## 1
Amino acid sequence: MILDQARFAQRKRRSFIVMALCWGAAAAGLGALLVILGTLLSKGLGGIRPEVFTQMTPPPGSDGGLLNPIVGSLIITSLGVLIGTPIGILAGTYMAEYGRYSKLTSVIRFVNDVLLSAPSIVMGLFVYAVMVAPMGHFSGLAGSVALSLLVIPIVIRTTEDMLLLVPNALREAATALGMPRSLVIRRVAYKAARAGIITGVLLAVARISGETAPLLFTALNDQFWSTNIFAPMASLPVVIFQFSLSPYEDWQRLAWVGALIITFAVLALSVVARWLGTSRVAK
Amino acid sequence: MTQTATGLGRHDAAKQQMERQRVLNRLKLWDALFARLTFAAALLVLIVLGAVFVSLIEGAWPAFRTFGLKFFVTEAWNPVTEKFGAVAPIYGTLVTSFIAMLIAVPIGLGIAIFLTELCPYALRRPIGIAIELLAGIPSIIYGIWGLFFFAPFFQQTVQPALISAFRNVPVLSELFAGPPYGIGILTAGIILAIMVLPIISAISRDVFETVPAVLKESAYGLGCTRWEVVRSVVMPYTKVGLIGGFMLGLGRALGETMAVTFVVGNAHRISASILAPGTTISATIANEFTEAVSDLHTASLIALGLILFLITFTVLALARLMLLRLEVKAGR
């Protein structure tokens, strides 16, 4: 067999060029993302002082911290998770246990997958229409409901996936012992899938803790200390949005500090979720 | 629960029987209740989707009634004279997402090829995890970075170069015309690209990993180069999944709010130049909703939201259908 040397060299060259471009793409992509983290650190780290965690948001031109938005974010996020998680787990349970082979489940799975990446600002509009407008005022609770609508699809997805991984032999053994079906699910299936479900909830927390768009016209904002969930409430993302677009330099500085805090909280949550997820596989 | 009744009186046995029946009844009740509860929660997903559609249509109704189909062809957006048209935001949404995909798809594919074919094994997991983590960074971070870091840099270096480079090229001189603002449609597209890059790379990598090693090995065995293996074996095998992944990224880009609002410029007009400021549906809603005074303004914004939801719903549904088809194929 005669190898056409010139043609072979050309093919090799072409392959080399494309592969070099792939190296370049990886370098460019990762580089851009590193630059973002670098900017965040360099602009935000200098502003991290104890006052950030002990003082309220300041009026322009004076010193202050981010205590009320931090607490507001914690309240809104945890309420959102508290509302969304049980609904998500129950719905996921139906899909994996009771209706595993039903037509309805595949429809719900499809709709849920679409909701999973639906624009979050539309969820904000929806909650505005069904909660804020009828009640006549913005509230932290409305913000939580908007966030819970983002939590539900994530929790449903992971709960269903994790329950489907539980071996049927476990369910059969429990049923053979005379356990009713709901007990089999709650005492056996949930236990076996626990780590995975917790991972899903943590991922959901990570997702919503940085969400800004659905809070803009549900929770609105509040310059002062407030823990009343029926009143407008400050949250870290909304404060970052407002402060960074303001012309005041000290507000912009605080916005960077807030951005740094959120990013690292989210990254830490994702790492914990991932660690929980892999330790389950390792077992 | 119930032990053997030996040695106990008949009376006790009957009592035990009743006790047992009571416990069983309670369990039966719980069983039915729990099943109903999970069913109701599952139905809630469908109800939420329906309610979102209904409430958006209801909220947008005044705008559609006033402007009719003209809402979709009017460029004007004037809260003072109460004339609203959706063309400029729809145009901005589509163009920024198109630019984002134009940049993110080749680079994302490159990263995926790098991760599955080129990267040393020791680095594959760390880089893969890093990309997945970056996909979780809140979009507002991309927005604030874009406004304070990227836009000034872009304004001072890249935009003047683009403007002077294409000054005498017929079509491109229109596309890259005007003063370098820094913020604008192109900047928004680039920021969006950086944001969806981790999503596209992660999905493409997952899809590439479904290619059976035997297929690739036989291609290498025939003397194919690496690029030929990727182009003629890996990509055709994963075509459907790749397109599904791109469309998921596109869905994200279309609906993204914060990353865009910071850098798009928020100007309700359509310019031939992609360096000029524009607006998108989500940026318009985020900027104006809380400040909208008249009912018609609010209704027009909700109408924009409805349009956005319909666009993303279609794109995401198509993406899911394609990924679903891939799953069915893989299951066989």
## 2
Amino acid sequence: MAERAYGLLAEFESPEALTAAAKKAREAGYRRLDAFTPFPIEGLARTLRLPRPKISWVGLIGGCSGCGFAFLMQCFTNYDFPLNVGGRPLYAFSAFAVVMFELTILFSALSMIVAMLWQNGLPRLNYPLFAAEQFHRASKDRFFLCVGADDGKFDKDRTSGFLQELGASSVESVGR
Amino acid sequence: MTDQSDILPVNQSMGGVSDQLTGIPLHFPAERRWLIAMLFASLLLLMFMVSVVELFTRGVGIWGINIPVNWAFAIHNYVWWLGIGHAGTLISALLLLTQSEWRNSLNRFAETMTLFAVICAGIYPVLHLGRPWYLYWMFPYPATMNVWPQFRSPLEWDIWAVLTYLTVSFAFWYTGLIPDLAAARDRATKRGWQIFFGITSLGWRGSAAHWLRWSQAYRLTAGLAVPLVVSVHSEVSLLFAAGQIPGWHSTIFPPYFVMGAAFSGFAVVSIIAISLRSWFGLKNLVTDDHLDLLGMVLIATGLMTAYGYVFEIFDALYSGDAHELQTLADRMTGAYAWTYWGAIVFNFIPLQALWWRIVRRTGWMLMLISISVVIGMWLERYMILVTSLYRDFLVSSWSHFTPTFWDWSTYFGTIGLFLVPFLLAIRFIPMISIFETEELLHEEKEEEHG
Amino acid sequence: MTRRRSNHVGAKPAGPRLWSSIEELSGDPAFQAWVDAEYPAAAEFTPTARRQFLKLMGASFALAGLAGCEKSPFVAALPYVDQPESETIGVPRIYATAVTFDGYAQPVIATTWSGRPTKLDGNPDHPVTMGRSDVFMQAAVLGLYDPDRAQAPTRRGEPATWQDVVAAIALLRGSWSKDQGEGLHLLIGPQSSPTLLRQLDALRKQFPKAQIHLHAPAGGAARRDLMAAVYGQPLDLHYVLDDCDVVVSFDDDLLGPGANQVRNARGWAASRRRSSRQPGIRLYAAESVPAATGAMAGARLMADASRMAVLAEAFAAKLGISGAASGDLTPAEQGWIEDAAKASNAAKSRALVTSGSYGDVGTAIWVARINDALKSAVLKFSQPVTGPSDAASLGDLVADMRAGKVQTLVILDCNPAYTAPAGLGFTDALKQVRSTLHLGLQRDETGELCEWQLPLTHALESWSDARAVDGTASIIQPTIAPFYDVRSVHQIMAMLLGEIDPAADAAVRQTWRASFGGDFDARWQQALYDGFVEGALPEVSATPSGNAKSEKPAGKGLDIVFRPDPTIWDGQFSNVGWLQELPKPLTTLTWGNVVTVSPALAKRLTIANGDNLEVMIGDRSVVGPAWIMPGQAENTVSLSLGYGRKRAGRVGDGLGYDAYGVRPADQPWIAKGSLRKTGTNETLAVTQLHHRMEGFDLVREVTAAHPSLAKQETPPSLYPPWPSAKNAWGMVIDLDSCIGCNACVAACTAENNVPVVGKDQVIVGREMHWIRIARYYEGEADAPRSFFQPVPCMHCEQAPCEMGCPVHATEHNSEGVNQMVYNRCIGTRTCSSYCPYKVRRFNFLDYRAPPQSPVHAADNPDVTVRSRGVMEKCTYCTQRIESAHAAADKENRGLREGDVVTACQAACPTRAITFGDINDPDSEVSRLRRDGRHYALLEELGTRPRTTYLARWRDGGGGEG
């Protein structure tokens, strides 16, 4: 048992059990809650009151900048070294549209994925929870609810008891 | 479409699925068959290497190209490969958006297939250059002579399109892969595997907050990938349509090409799906229903492509342009009529068998039809390129084209270039999305209960 | 040429002084000072030795210190150590001189860079050519750099020195002088050189019993023999086409290849253009084998070679000439003769009837009588320009050799071991000759068999002289000092005459000192400057001798006719890559010869192009690939001479079949023979695979009834117009004048360093010519109408090619020229894919000659030599445009009409190509663009080509023309 605990990790058999437990925990006044599941679970985020992420906005900004960059680049190259290409106009916007579209997609997509990783604090190869006995099943067939030690209501024994009541098949204290 | 009826047999546990799938890389079931396939693929790859060395030492003259047919196999196979690639993106992105869960068993290797097909495609424009070592002149960088690329050129568009496509496909593929890499990490017992998956999974831990951001990013990217696919192959078609050559200069080309691409792509997806499921015994995950659906998609896209053919003829007739008509007639009766009729036969005749449910649900039948489609689409690209170029406007420049040994060796070589990394991928990476399959199972179970 | 104008000898030169000879340069005091400083020893030399030494020095640095390398004198290029006086690097020197063909002079202006001749253009002041040229003249410069030239004397194949030669000749002279040259025989090709003829006479004075034989496998000599039979005296004919209204030709290819092509073509085109409402001259051609003449004829009649005499007689009868009986004729023949007769009667003395050099005497006789009756004023006669006139024949020589009467045989400028009819058995007879000397550029089939092979200088490195077809003499001056250990023919003749170490120019000066008389030096200088000496041969009058009889070709069977090859002639140009790769006018065949048969015959024997045919004449036969020639007379089979060589060199060896092998000695041009398929076939290297116009209006026609085409609107464009510079270049090509002679293609090849790619690459379809002569047929395959259409880059104002290039390697300049930037090209070939005219050429492989090869010396330093993987195409000779700009800027003026002349335009014998500034409303090209016959190729594509065409006149012969 480590000096300073990270929190308590409760293991549940099914997503439904987890969602129910999370609900009760919030009603009981716990705030520092997090859930770990093998696949995204409907409604869990709402139950845990997680803020809506801003990924879409990042994507929008990325797209616009990509589009603008492509446009300016193509205009600049033709302004910088104007050449008569088959009698076509210097600023052939219809032709430029193609690259503009491509870069819109490219910038937007990359920015969103980078933003996702950034907000998720990834990559981070080690994490306290990885030390937990059962945690490896979080990517397989178990559903975990974690109460952070930094929660105001957190008290090792009471909280673990509380979690037991919620029907956790196991409760484990995780060191920091 | 199939949300009501279960696509996966529900009598299997999530854990079971997870073990089964992560098990494929961790304790590889089919060493021997895999090694044989790998040997074969490596030989093809070797042939590719040799061809490329010969090509770079002597020049593109080792191919059968000439004036006027100065584009042939290189551009032709570039289009073919790229077309194949598109199906992967379409399957995973389009079907993700349409919430068709049945995709979940297919998307992973479909995306993987895309990745390597696009690489095969992308390498061709480089090989076909007269002076490939100057490829970088196509990128905008401050050159000593202050010259920039020429952004009115379809080739320039293609460079941007293909590179964008490659990058986005990779990002999308990898994003989808992270949770499964994590799963594999947690199953891994050997040190090496733990390190490998530990690093590649970026420390994914499936936290609810992570899942939330992840799915938003993943879906939005999928939303972008669909128009991207359409745009990429439209641009490829502009490579031809932007020229005034009869048989190229037509507005039908972009949709015509995109449909053809999807068509050939889905054919390859079916081929891979069928071989993988029999190979690794995944009949419980890639079910007959999947094949059924693939068959439907195949015939649908096939008919759309057929429409392109019809409209191309109409286009020529309607324009009444003497040269267009001449090219049309020449395609059907000229020296390369075999490519035209070959394309029609291989693409559309066996395809009709897919009207029967039993055919769609029988692996080897679907397999054969898909192979014929792949051949047919290859012939179609050949037809579009050669028949338009070898007889264009001025009779005095009419000529002929005969592929040389090096044309063929380079082409078959790229098949090796595709297979080797693909085989490595199915060896080392979960080839079916684990978490999505579990998710699907769970949902189906819920429906069971209430 | 423009430069040459600007610096006249005498007048103080602005710009570089005209450098009339190496010697003159060697005579330059500054240079002598330099030599004395550099080589003190030189001061002690005897005058002769010193001149020799100076010349070599002049040579060696004129060649940038290259003379005397093993493989090629051009391997180790060194810069000038001291730049010679009046030599500006990068500014070419230009000489007026001449090259020879079929014994006649072809007056040229030679452009030399640092002492290397690189380009020949016609001499614009010359009364005959007026600056025009043909393929042979254009390619002569490559003959100079032929890597397989003989580089030093050899005796029985062993290297020898000229001292050995002198010694040997001294011995021979000893034996000749015993009995007045009994047993001394000379065999020479036709010669017009006054100096050589003088030397031959001198030789015969020394050795009265010496005999001279003439051997000409093809060319003017054949016609001279005919004329001797018809008029009782050897004559040269001169057609004055400029003043001619109607020409009726009986198998006479007067517009085809040969010494007279330039003169005839020029005259023909000039009178064709007399009026803008109708063609100024009309041509009725009866032909057995399709040729340029028939292609241009308004009314063409197909008739077997052996039928020409009958037709000529019938034509004579139609004109009411006594003694002429019109045999039974087909309706076609009937109609053609009636039309021709009507036209001739109308034209009276402005009508001309001609018979072929390669026809039979019967035809020639009737044609002569008809001209006589018509009192044709457009047919002139002169004494033969080439000689020697009283020479015996090759047949006599072989007879003498067989009889052992020949002790010494001197073979000069001909190759009998290859070109003699196999029936004569020349090579066997040669074995019976004790000592044999071969004087020639190469150690060819004959040189190999002779005891001595004495290498000659090329015309471009010789002092000599020659006469053009009208007899106008040109003094040939060297444009470069000999870079091999060779001597001019005059030097060797002088040796035979007993001189020791004769100077290169001594004999020539001696000849002209006689005719120039008093102010020799001034007139000599003037002659060198002008490139010719005023004065054609005097006209003589001649009437056909009545009693001449014609002999029918013996035997039954097909008419087998022999023709010299249109690009390598009798085989003497076999080793010239440019000519080998030049498409033959009507077949577009390269690198070989074919047996041409008529479509009807082909159907009968089920022959396809490329099937090998065995042609049998008597007991001899030869096998060659078939070519089905639309428009060939049904029972005529044509063999072309000049191929199947064994000792031509690395370019020309082992190509095609050797027609001399079946050529009967007594019937050199028409014989009876038979044909059979061997069952094998081969791939022919043709540059155009499809010959029908397929109903497209690629070549358009106008008639006198409707002398102008429907005016075409420039199609609208979405793009705003680009501003043009002061000059906007454009080209107009007159399809009515183009006779498909390929001179433009050859000139372009020489000017723009166009590579030779070889037979295999041509078969794949990768020939590199920047301008191609498209050839189309219309109508029935057995009686088609032929069209020629030169297709260079169109320089479209809205060029699809430029739009396709991702790296700006091709774009427009402000003067509207579609530029190709070689060093920027990465070889995507998109431009070529998008080009509707397919005029772009790509370096699929590295087509440059190997670094050791001397042909690099022929490269034009103003034009980049393209590497592998690079696109190239016609640039409107941008280097000429730029140098014209530079010259104009120096004089601080704008460009004038005629300042820029493209290579193809300069070469064209018919002036079919016009180039100039379309911004200048008074320029010739602008005038032609307003002409009623003007049209743009594929204008419906909206590419707005700068290269446009004038429609061809259609004069159906029936008088409506």
